Amino acid sequence: MMNSLVQAILLGGYYALVACGLAFMFQVMRIINLAHGSLAILSAYLVWEITDALALSPFVSVLMILPIMAIIGLLLQRVILERATKGGELLPVLTTFGLAIVIDNLLFQQFGANTRSLSPYLGDLSWESYEIFGLWIGKLPVIVLITAIVVIGGLDLILRFTPLGRQIRATAFDPDTAGLVGIDARKIAGISAAIAMMTVAISGTALGLRGTFDAYAGGPQLLFAFEATIIGGASSLWGVFLGGIILAIAQSIGALIHPQGFLLGGHFMFLIFLFARIYFNRDVFTLKHWFAKRNKGEITA
Amino acid sequence: MLSVSNLDVRYGQFRAVQGVSMEIAKGDVVSLIGANGAGKSTLLRAIAGALPIHSGRLLFKQQEITNTSSSSRVQQGLSLVPEGRRLFSDMTVEENLLLGSTVKRSGDWNIERIFSTFPNLVKRRHAKTGNLSGGEQQATAIGRALMSNPDFLILDEVSLGLSPLVVNQVYDSMESLKDAGTTILLVEQDLERAMRFSKRTICMLEGRVVLDKLTSDTNKEEITQAYFGLHQSSKQEVS
Fold this sequence. Notes:
Chain A is mainly alpha-helical. Chain A has helices spanning 2-29, 36-54, 58-85, 90-111, 139-161, 163-173, 175-181, 185-210, 218-232, 237-257, 261-279, 287-300; strands at residues 116-117, 129-132, 135-138, 212-213. Chain A has a two-stranded antiparallel ribbon with strand order 1-4. In chain A, strands 2-3 form a two-stranded antiparallel sheet. A 6-stranded mixed sheet of chain B has the order 6-7-8-3-9-10, sandwiched between helices. In chain B, strands 2-1-4-5 form a 4-stranded antiparallel sheet, with helices on one face. Chain B starts with a strand and ends with a helix. Chain B: Keywords: Amino-acid transport, ATP-binding, Nucleotide-binding, Transport. Chain B: This is Amino acid/amide ABC transporter ATP-binding protein 2 (HAAT family).
């Protein structure tokens, strides 16, 4: 039990890593990018190609594809999303859905149906573990979890404390007024898409390191990212981090109940949160709500 | 400095601003007067780039800006304090002010000078602007616009929703802008205050300019008649 909880939290770190790019794009640009998972798989293939061709460590290759994915993000914004958003809220969803199909099939054409993994390039690290209180904890999942914390923490710090982050928040809050203040909304959208795609590159690599992927593995990644985002609430990145962990725990509980319950457990948790978010006040999901109530109770008592 | 010629702004089929032309020279202080729905805010927002222009031309410092983005107009020195303040309410006063300096124009406005111009903001520096009083919010909105060191400042109903005392404070602090030679175009519902503050008065009615005179050459009666569109009807009475 304890073991599956710890493993679930580590898996949750991966989900948080996939979800943060999706949530970031939704928060900042109000776009649900359905090509998110496929782009993660694309970057996994890119890392795999570079690692294989140049005999590098995947950790070095991912640094090389970060700028590539950033440029892809910028192009995605300039060529596709910018035009699509002019056509209303639904159009970017349809456009990115189409883009996902295109990417999946191009990958299939290029790389075929074989599953690939980055773990062979890691040597011993792919199976090494720490033994803590009788639990075996894989080093790699720990690295992924720490990466998730660093990426989300880094994004959070950028948003909070840098001029760029302020401009991104202002544009997300009120794009018209942001323009009147002198913020170039187009530039900010491009930079945001580039940042989101860099997180996608990292999450695709994490997927390849943790297990296997093939050309059509994008769909499930998008699903996990989406579920984690909804569970955590799209308004804060740390919420999304928590959402990823809750999703993974639900999946593990599902798997304990029935061997095939892994995905069902996650879906079930997703639906619970979805309906709770529809029927309850936003406040219920904040810590403040619960603590404020307790304080009030003490005062009246 | 700003030249508006034959400007048309539409919301779908509705022509909110129709064939408006005006010239505003450097150092002018102009107040724009008109009833609700006369097209004042629409005109100001179109000048600032927040609304697309249907036809007509807009020149700022001899450069065509008819189709440029609002952020590039700020870059050129044209800044709007929007109606209803439109602050980023989940950010602090300081963050809102810093956003104003995004375009990095040179000039003598900086965050410390804003705080000395609006001393009521000093103790609110790190408060979220959503929690401020109306006067503090208005001061932040004006400060945010000033942080871009504008040559031309547009103020849309700065006294809306403020108590008379706070309105006095806001206008007192704007006197110093006037003295510094900043060109100002403002919308003000209080006619007497507008006449006292501005050198020139423009009155709009149903999307058109119906009066454009130096404040010293006109009087309250004439403006009131233009405001309500009484020119023609009074002529009819005479005939």
